[in-house]
Amino acid sequence: MYDKTRATEGTETTHPFPGEAAILDRLSHCIQKGCFICIEHASAVQPRLTFWERWGKASCFDGDLGGLYASIEGCKQVHADHHIRLNVENIAWRSRLSLVVHRPH
After folding, report:
1. How many CB atoms lie within 10 A of CB 81?
2. Cα 46 to Cα 3: distance, rounded to the nearest angstrom
3. Which residue ranges make up each domain of the chain?
4. What is the spatial distance between Cα 43 and Cα 104, in angstroms, rounded to a whole number?
5. What does DSSP say about strands 36-42 and 83-90: parallel, antiparallel, or unpaired?
6. Closest Cα to residue 55, out of 36, 76, 35, 25?
7. Of 17, 67, 82, 100, whose Cβ has the fewest other Cβ atoms within 10 Å?
8. What does the pLDDT look like over 37-96, one tens digit per residue?
9. What gap in Å lies between CA 54 and CA 57, rounded to an integer?
10. In the CATH scheme, what is the code of domain 18-102?
């Protein structure tokens, strides 16, 4: 489960995957505003054309970072050798953000 502990002076943050936890910390404001998030995976990422397959269905996590992190972990367990990305879409602002949260190597 995702632990939202932040580092302060004299303490260290302990996350199983520190890079992914930092990404989810930065996305927390998007998730709380009701954006739709789609988790996708691909076996190989090419510079010009990559076919991403959807994991589950797009959903609005309503600020539930633990649920989002559990969905990413579920995708990683089945597709450990694939790249995994998040597509975050805010319909009200007509904006979309895509970022890779897992690389197999």
Report:
1. 10
2. 33
3. 18-102
4. 9
5. antiparallel
6. 76
7. 100
8. 899 999 988 878 889 999 988 888 777 788 888 899 999 999 999 999 998 888 777 788
9. 7
10. 3.30.190.10
Show the tokens assigned to 73: 């972990």
What is the token pair recorded at 4?
Answer: 């939202």
Please give the helix or strand (H or E) that residue 54 lies within, else none. Answer: strand 53-59
Counted residue by residue, the chain has a size of: 105
pLDDT class of 18 with cuts at 50, 70, 90: low
What is the reported pLDDT for 5? Answer: 42
Q: For residues 29-55, b (16+ Cβ closer than 10 Å) or e, as one string? A: ebbeeebebbbbbbeeeeeeeeebeeb
Nearest CA to 75 out of 90, 59, 55, 89 is that of 55
Q: Is the dihedral of CA 1, 87, 24, 59 positive or negative?
A: negative
